[in-house]
């Protein structure tokens, strides 16, 4: 199985969250009790990815580095690259070309939150595919806001449309994508859309035309939240609060997932926890250790 690196796209303009984003990246905004960036980062670690590039705005670099460092405390490697101008999701592969090198890659949007017991099964299956692309479809009430996957009567995807006025299905393409190494070459061929952006839909369509696109449908046991607006940010915070309070677990906790995957030791988790005891975050991590002894 070929190595797969990960990219978190945490740049962008953040205009939908103005004035919150006038002075700080939306991916540093709180989703209940954690910065938004913790959730996609945790998802990539959960998917078994340990070499991660975070694409950021130039004025946010110091803040991200102060928050996450080089990832050593999580047993992973984190590097950063600046997006000087937001020109669409497919631009991530042009910015990350050197980082990707000869590896396969997964891209996750920095304002997307995923939760569900079967997530890891989906990701493990996608990780094993060395060729082609895998994207995930999720039923939504307002598909016109997203890239929409259209299927034939046999359940095979026949097209992907970006924000269609009259969607042919209710299945939106979510903000996590698994690509083989040819994604860089393909991204270089993407032309700006009418919106002036390099659309990831055009990139996905190249795989569809090659018949190497896999579309998996997320079932009802998985939650997908896009936290890029005031309303959805509040809804995501409420969702995380309810799940955490009722189930006694934390969503988007990269330290816990790194520990569970054996990337950091019990001793390292204790060291991480000590300065965080007053917030309750450190106590939660300590409890994970106690439960195993």
From TrEMBL:
Q: Which Pfam families match?
A: NTP_transferase
Report which reactions are catalysed by this protein. Answer: dTTP + alpha-D-glucose 1-phosphate + H(+) = dTDP-alpha-D-glucose + diphosphate
Report the EC number(s), separated by commas if there are several: 2.7.7.24
Domain (Nucleotidyl transferase): residue spans on this chain: 5-239
What's the cofactor? Answer: Mg(2+)
InterPro entries in UniProt: G1P_thy_trans_s (IPR005907), NTP_transferase_dom (IPR005835), Nucleotide-diphossugar_trans (IPR029044)
What are the record keywords, sorted?
Answer: Magnesium, Metal-binding, Nucleotidyltransferase, Transferase
Single GO MF annotation: metal ion binding
- Say which domain of life the source belongs to: Bacteria
Q: Which family does it belong to?
A: Belongs to the glucose-1-phosphate thymidylyltransferase family.
Described purpose of this protein according to its UniProt entry: Catalyzes the formation of dTDP-glucose, from dTTP and glucose 1-phosphate, as well as its pyrophosphorolysis.
What name goes with this protein?
Glucose-1-phosphate thymidylyltransferase
Annotated organism of origin: Prochlorococcus marinus str. XMU1401
């Amino acid at each position: 199985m070929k190595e797969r690196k990960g990219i978190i796209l945490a740049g962008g303009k953040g205009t939908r969250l103005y004035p919150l984003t006038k002075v700080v990246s939306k991916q540093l905004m709180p989703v209940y009790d954690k910065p938004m960036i913790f959730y996609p980062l945790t998802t990539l670690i959960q998917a078994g990815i340990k070499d991660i590039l975070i694409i950021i705005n130039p004025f946010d670099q110091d803040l991200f580095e102060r928050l996450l460092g080089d990832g050593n405390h999580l047993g992973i490697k984190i590097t950063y690259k600046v997006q000087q101008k937001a020109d669409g999701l497919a631009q991530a592969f042009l910015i990350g070309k050197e980082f990707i090198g000869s590896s396969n890659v997964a891209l996750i949007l920095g304002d997307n939150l995923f939760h569900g017991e079967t997530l890891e099964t989906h990701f493990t299956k996608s990780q094993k595919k060395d060729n082609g692309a895998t994207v995930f479809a999720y039923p939504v009430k307002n598909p016109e806001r997203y890239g929409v996957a259209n299927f034939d009567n046999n359940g095979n995807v026949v097209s992907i449309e970006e924000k269609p006025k009259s969607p042919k299905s209710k299945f939106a393409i979510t903000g996590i994508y698994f690509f083989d190494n040819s994604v860089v070459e393909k991204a270089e061929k993407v032309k700006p859309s009418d919106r002036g952006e390099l659309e990831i839909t055009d990139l996905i369509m190249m795989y569809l035309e090659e018949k190497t696109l896999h579309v998996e449908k997320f079932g009802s046991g998985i939650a997908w939240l896009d936290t890029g607006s005031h309303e959805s940010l509040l809804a995501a915070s409420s969702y995380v609060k309810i799940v955490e309070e009722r189930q006694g677990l934390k969503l988007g906790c990269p330290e816990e997932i790194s520990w569970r995957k054996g990337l950091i030791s019990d001793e390292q988790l204790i060291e991480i926890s000590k300065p965080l005891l007053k917030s309750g975050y450190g106590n939660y991590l300590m409890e994970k250790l106690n439960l195993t002894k």
